[in-house]
Design a protein that fits this description.
The chain has 190 residues and is mainly α. It has 2 domains: 46 residues, no CATH class; 108 residues, AhpD-like, CATH 1.20.1290.10. 34% of the residues are buried.
């Protein structure tokens, strides 16, 4: 149970209800509001800012969704964020991430199922998630893998945003809802 009370699926507060309606216009009228949004909705201006930032990262980026989902899953794994991991597994599957790649994420450096662009993104996820940020070598690695400056910004911003997501989820003790039962795999050093 989160550390602060969540809003109902149909909140009474007008500002939160309007934001939930906005989400449902995009996702479907019967979309069950995720617990993350039910906590964020307690602070409608912050929830709006979250949506305004997160959705373009998800829906309007030039880099492939598959690549970004790999990056997000690796960040969730490194930060030990079960909610993020469980919610992004179906998105990764839908984006074309293979089961083999998901299984290889804990030890991706030794795996042979990632291309150079994916390896560059996974290195970025590791460095940004563990902090303090991406090294010059990681940025150079992205460029060598064929990413232009706009795509480098997208990937660094995506990795950085999902560090924020993980920190918020873990700080608020938001755990995966029923139906999102995928357990975090162990890392080699666990």
């Amino acid at each position: 149970m989160p550390r602060i009370p969540m809003l109902d699926q149909q909140p009474q507060q007008a500002a939160a209800r309007a934001l939930f309606d906005q989400v449902r216009r995009t996702r479907g009228a019967d979309f069950p509001m995720p617990d993350l949004y039910r906590v964020l909705g307690v602070a409608p201006p912050m929830f709006k800012a979250w949506l305004d930032f997160a959705w373009p990262l998800r829906l309007h980026a030039r880099t492939s969704r598959k690549l970004r989902e790999l990056l997000i899953l690796r960040g969730a794994l490194v930060s030990r964020t079960a909610y993020e991991w469980a919610h992004h597994l179906p998105m990764a599957d839908e984006a074309g991430v293979s089961a083999r790649q998901i299984e290889a994420l804990p030890a991706w450096r030794e795996a042979d199922c990632f291309d150079p662009a994916e390896r560059a993104a996974l290195r970025l996820a590791d460095e940004v998630t563990t902090g303090p940020g991406a090294s010059q070598e990681a940025i150079d690695n992205l460029r060598q893998a064929g990413f232009d400056d706009e795509q480098v910004v997208e990937l660094v911003l995506t990795a950085s945003f999902y560090v924020c997501v993980g920190r918020f989820l873990n700080s608020m003790d938001i755990t995966p809802e029923a139906g999102y039962d995928a357990a975090l795999p162990s890392l080699p050093s666990d």
